[in-house]
Amino acid sequence: MARTIDIGSKTYYAKQTLKWCEKYFGLCDRKKRKLIFKVSERKRKSGNSDIYGNYCFWRNTITLYLPNNTTIHDIVATMIHEYTHYLQSRTKYRNYEKTHYYSQNPLEKEAKRNGENLWKKHACRA
Q: How far is it, in rounded angstroms, from Cα 86 to Cα 73?
């Protein structure tokens, strides 16, 4: 079972992961404004599901919901997942939303795959 961590450590790991993402993936050249990163101490849900993080295309902001991210794996995988959304096209995402369920959206699948597959790569360097 994974060890839970305190809020200060969660924020630290999230910021380190964001730096890693910027080096590994690069910056999005389509964005006019710098990416904003925020943490929230609010627990967020959608129906019965916890929301770990969110990328807002309009505000160019990644928000990490600290209460839902209880392990280093949660934080790193969520940050990589949301950073993937930062790199993706809003137009493509909206078009897929019209024709696919959330779990079947190819851009969600890509973000989930990146978060799950790359977290170990980052964790080894953190």
A: 20
Digit-coded pLDDT (tens) for 108-123 = 999 999 998 887 776 6
- The reported pTM is 0.89
| Per-residue confidence (pLDDT) for residue 101, from 0 to 100 | 87
Domain ranges in the chain are 7-123
Residue type (1 letter), 32: K
Strand positions, DSSP E, 24-126: 36-40, 45-46, 49-50, 53-56, 61-65
User: Of how many residues is the chain composed?
Assistant: 126
By three-state DSSP, how is residue 63 classified? strand
Q: Which CATH architecture has domain 7-123?
A: 2-Layer Sandwich (3.30)
Checking phi first, is residue 26 left (phi over 0); if not, alpha (psi -120 to 50) or beta?
A: left
Over its C-alpha atoms, the chain yields an Rg (Å, rounded) of 14
Side-chain-facing half-sphere of 56: CA atoms under 13 Å: 12
